[in-house]
Amino acid sequence: MKNHHDGDQTLWENVHQASKIYILPNTFTAGNLFFGFLSIMLCVQGKFNPTEVASLSHLGALISPTADVGTSYYLLAIICILASCFCDALDGRVARASGKTSLFGKEFDSLADSVSFGIAPCLLMYFLILQPTESMNETFRSLLRNTGWFIGFVFMLCASIRLARFNVLTNPYIMGHEKYEKGDFAGLPAPAAAGTVASIALTMLSFELDKYSPILIPLMLLIAWLMITNIPYPSFKHINWTTSMRFRSFVALIICILLIIALREYSFAIIFLAYVLYSPIKYAPRALKILSYKVKKLKKSE
Length: 302
Description:
Blueprint: E1 2-3, E2 10-11, H1 15-18, H2 23-48, H3 54-63, H4 69-98, H5 103-128, H6 138-169, H7 177-182, E3 185-186, H8 190-207, H9 217-227, E4 232-233, H10 247-263, H11 267-301
Helix pairs in contact: 2-4, 2-5, 3-4, 4-5, 4-8, 5-6, 5-8, 6-9, 8-9, 8-11
């Protein structure tokens, strides 16, 4: 490796160094991709042929004994998306901790994310939330019949744009990348968006709320839009076993643990939605001040 001419960046000397495949972090990335692929397969199986692979349906029945075979496949698909989130959280952390980062790992991670956090949640959303059912009224059925596919595509498009932009912002050959590499995320991370969709789908299946699914369309569009904004979201990259935290942060962590224990599968939706809405609520007053200032400035110029 060699230093950049300005002394602030450390770059790879040639393509062979940049494309090195380090086993441990890329194994987690491959696990992320595997669970994303498995989630897609389970969604398709649950939608079109839910009775063919009995062994998988038995696993779903262990999660929810009262669920039918098709629902069991969706439950497993949701768990696979959450497992992808877990693998994605570990691959970069392991690479940084071991000093085994490479441009190959960064690109491989984004390609895996596009499957696990783009296609997989989009398919889950389309089959569970954006499909018309007999329990809905005619207005809702007509709405989903005409726009469901488009809403699903918008989510996948925003996730892909988010991942591509992240690669550009954190490219080590671009000046100022350290701000985005070590600081907060610019926009809602794709794994958090996918985890939110999966956890909402899990709650819907648990409470049999499919007839109310059209109400979630604005939320799905909001999540998609947040991915392509510049709103800062906490990255937690700096957190490890030796990290100290403020009292309120420690209390929030304990509350999250208690929620998971007490509410089990329902806790995921609460935690993910809290993360999704935290930054917009936090930065809303600042955004309103900026907007008010620009409006006043515009009026003065007129």
